[in-house]
Amino acid sequence: MTQKILLINTNVARPPVSPVGLEYLGEALIEAGVSVRVLDLSFESDWTVALRKELSRDEPLVVGVSVRNTDDCSFYSRKSFLPWIRDVVTELRGLTTAYVVLGGVGFSVMPELVIRMTKADFGVAGDGEEAMLALVRCLMNDEDISDLPNLVYWRDGSVIRNPRVDIDLSRLPIPRRRLFDNRRYEELGAMVGIETKRGCSQHCIFCADPVAKGSRVRLRSPFVVVEEFKDLIAQGVSWFHLCDSEFNLPMGHAKHICQAIIEAGLGDKIRWYCYCSPTPFDGELASLMKRAGCLGVNFGVDSLCDEQLSRLGRSHSVSDVGQLVNLLKGQRINYMFDLLVGGPGETEDTLKTTIKRIKELDIHLAGIAAGIRVYPGTPFGKAIASGSIKEGLYPAKANALSPWEPVFYLSPYLGSDASGLISELLAHDLRFLFLGSPSQEGSYNYADDEVLCRVIEEGARGAYWDIIRQQKRRPT
Length: 476
Ligand code: B12
Prior knowledge:
Distance between the termini: 59 Å
Number of helices: 18
Structural class: alpha/beta
Largest sheet: 7 strands, mixed
Number of strands: 19
Bound molecules: cobalamin
Oligomer: single chain
Helix content: 25-40%
């Protein structure tokens, strides 16, 4: 196959995040014999000039455009990246007749809405490797595309989404991680992404991960993951962030991954962070993670009120979190807790209880996201679409979940000034961060946070929450 595919990384937010999804996709295409070029807009000072230059070289058959984030998911800033994606697609239309295909985790959380808004020709929802290859082959040979799994396309003015197929990850070649300049990302303070599995089988009512990644967990072999680490280490990369929804689900796989890293002698060559669920977690996992180079864990705790946890569809309890905290303290693990405030049924009392318990447990760092980002394919999004929840939606007219304006839900029982209430309860306690606007004092919204970028430029490294934590504690 000789015709060229151009893959464009559009994630230009700072501090940067390496385009691991696009890299996995590109490597799989190359392995199948497709000729692939990449353009990383994250490193271009003038994106229109860069597009023009790239497309004047020769005409590709397909241009793949990554949509990693639809928006920053912050109720208080509500910054959408979709107008930017639409501008890139529009610019491409003026420069090439190539098919424009969208994909990425952001795209996959609401594909129909994103494609309608950007007017791209096609999209791939979910796993990209095999779906994009199948699409490219059909387009090359002028074959019918209408049955291709994961494909989103236009027919007679309507957007059609084909049924998804979540691929068996053991079929994929070991990605070589040479398409993008991961070393340069690390120099700019990024942690390079790497997956140990895909999918999440939990039933959290609000979460986009089962929608974007599938609800069946698919494991990558520890051998393959270690080979990928080795390749990146050989390129001079040492800071990583795992891209699993929750690293410890299932716990046995997490232990196997850590053991494989330790046995390969990589534990002191890499430093990594990850997301974990509060359960299951035990002393053996904590110790293996530390020996395998883990420097910090972000736990999705959401609430410290059992009735609220149950309403959110979480499977852990307040007592589980208490046990977890004892274990983390005993094992001296660096961690933060993510809290999700303002879900259905949240009241001033449940919120006060959560904050009080965080203080009592003396949690190192807790981040508060107020307001639930509503996605069409989640149980919560479906409940809203069915009309069973009418109050608490922002924007208020949000009956037809629009991608132009990110839609949020905030429990009406928190009153008209939830952020004032939260600030009052936190009372400048340095153990708390808040998902506000980037660069705002105490905020942990990383998408274009200038203060965070400056600190990174001065040499700070690690997960962005860990850098912010250290800054907050630094005497001024
Ligand atoms: C790890 C992670 C982080 C880490 C990143 C560290 C790192 N170096 O990777 C950190 C903590 C820094 C982070 C930050 C943010 N994150 Co984040 N993150 C994730 C997470 C868990 C993994 C993303 C990932 O890399 N996946 C692995 C890759 C391989 O998958 P993929 O990108 O989907 O790629 C596959 C397909 O989509 C497809 N594909 C990919 N690109 C393309 C392109 C084309 C053309 C095609 C056809 C196919 C295709 O092929 C790939 C292989 O199959 C996801 C949730 C999740 N489970 O995915 C959230 C997630 C992506 N993050 C999210 C958000 C909101 C953010 C922030 C904006 C939060 C904030 N306000 O600070 C920032 C943005 C920072 C930035 N510059 O982008 C949201 C995005 C939701 C949305 N509405 O778009 C997610 C989905 C979490 C969630 N459930 O809400 N994040």
